[in-house]
Amino acid sequence: MSINAPYGTWKSPITSDLIAAGGALRLGYSRIHQSSIYWVEGRPAEGGRNVLMRQSAGGLPVAITPTGFNVRTRAHEYGGGAYTLSGDDVYFCNDADQRIYRQRAGENPVAMTADAKRCYADLVVDAHRNTLIAVCEDHHAEGREAENYLLEINLATGAEQILARGYDFYSSPRLSPDGKRLAWLSWRHPNMPWDGTQLWLADRLSDGELANMRCVAGGKQESIFQPEWSPSGELYFVSDRSGWWNLYRERTVVDEVCPMAAEFGLPQWVFGLSTYGFTGDEEIVCSFAVNGLWSLATIDLTCGLLQPIPTNFSDIGFVSAGVKRVVFSAATPTESDAVIGLDLSTRQTTTIRRASELPIAAEYFSTPELIEFPTENNLSAFGFFYRPVNPDFSPNDGEQPPLIVISHGGPSSATTNGFKLGIQYWTSRGFAVLDVNYGGSSGL
Questions:
Q1: Using CA atoms, how far apart are residues 27 and 92, in angstroms rounded to an integer?
Q2: Mean pLDDT across the stretch 357-378?
Q3: What pairing do the DSSP bridges indicate for beta strands 432-437 and 403-407?
Q4: What is the DSSP code string of 323-365?
Q5: Phi and psi dihedrals of 19, rounded to 5?
Q6: Who contacts 57 (Cβ-Cβ below 8 Å, separation ≥6)?
Q7: Residue 334, CA distances (Å) to 164, 317, 319, 420 in order
């Protein structure tokens, strides 16, 4: 039986100590490789150390990188894209020395680079040439801005060659399935990657050198995101040329795959972001945002038909696909982040790893409602409204709750309705909360 009490005075099991404990894992960079699922797990209990995890088919999650190693790159300061996989080998960047390491099953990690004045990211193995391609951020020039370029490292000899340089920033090197072409992104000051980038494509010669370089898409006012190769060797990418980050592919001309008033891209603050992947030559699995709400869908590449995949998740990222299966990181409005597996044949989801298991009943959590409100110049803004919720208390008749308004940082960011314990702290005490996506927020 609930107790009548004024809004804002309710007692709650969601305490400040629970929030301050900060025990939730940080989960991301999920990937399907062979028959296993990989992801990076940030552990507050270990000083924030990032551990590469794997779950093999039918197995339990196990740590791949041993104690003493932290899977993190500091390239572009924000990092991301700190590992890649090739066969049974793992290659990763280690935070302490920023060197690239190779780890084989049952063996200790072995350093593949020696220079402590460089950072690496977006690692790609070229199995055809036994080399590793990476974005390199070179800090050798004292007193000057670091130089960025694409670097190739011979995995047998350690010999290095620079593949592309001259731009201020590089990201997303992607090797075609046959190893004969390389695509990548570059951009220059003062642009940020969500302002304007260029998508480049080049042939790979037998010695790894690049030839016939050409700009496929992009420019000073066109942002390109996540170039990827289809299994048959067609180049796909996300562009905002229409005003929305939509999917395109390069054939004899650049084709739009599935035009929508939706965002299939993200602000590239970090390397390694992914919103789509291929289940085969004729299908993509993707996440996309409409009015700040993220959804999952398939796209038939023969006709461009998008078919939503109903799930409880509304904050979805790090999408990776294989034949008839998908892995991604996601949250619901009342459940914390998790690494999720999806069987496309049955549409059944499996929770592989959850960021935290709170000892709080779901009845104490407020479910956000998407709202839209007018702003200047006849435009609209959006937000997520959380009503006060606590099964132990009821408000006094006719009383209105106090309202807390939250505005996220950075115009290139956005809030989602994924679970936020800090907001639930207030709503369970009788406060209403409005989490605003103001004009200019990403995904709107």
A1: 17
A2: 93
A3: parallel
A4: TTEEEEEEEETTEEEEEEEEETTTTEEEEEEES---SS-GGGP
A5: -70, -45
A6: 35, 36
A7: 46, 17, 21, 8
Return d(Cα 321, Cα 102) in angstroms, integer.
24
User: How many angstroms separate the CA atoms of 81 and 84, rounded?
Assistant: 8
Query: Residue 239 in contact with residue 222, Cβ under 8 Å?
Result: yes
* Block residue for tokens 């301050």: 20
Q: Output the CA angle 404-408-414, nearest 5 degrees.
A: 125
pTM score, two decimals? 0.94
CA 444 to CA 438: how far, in whole Å?
Answer: 9
Separation between Cα atoms, residue 41 and residue 122, nearest integer Å: 18
Average pLDDT of the residues of the chain = 95
Which residue's structure tokens are 């999952």?
296
**Are the beta carbons of 208 and 152 closer than 8 angstroms?**
yes
Phi (first) and psi of residue 192, to 5 degrees: -95, 160
For residue 294, give the H/E element and its range. Answer: strand 293-300
* CA R_g for the chain: 23
* 346, amino acid identity: T
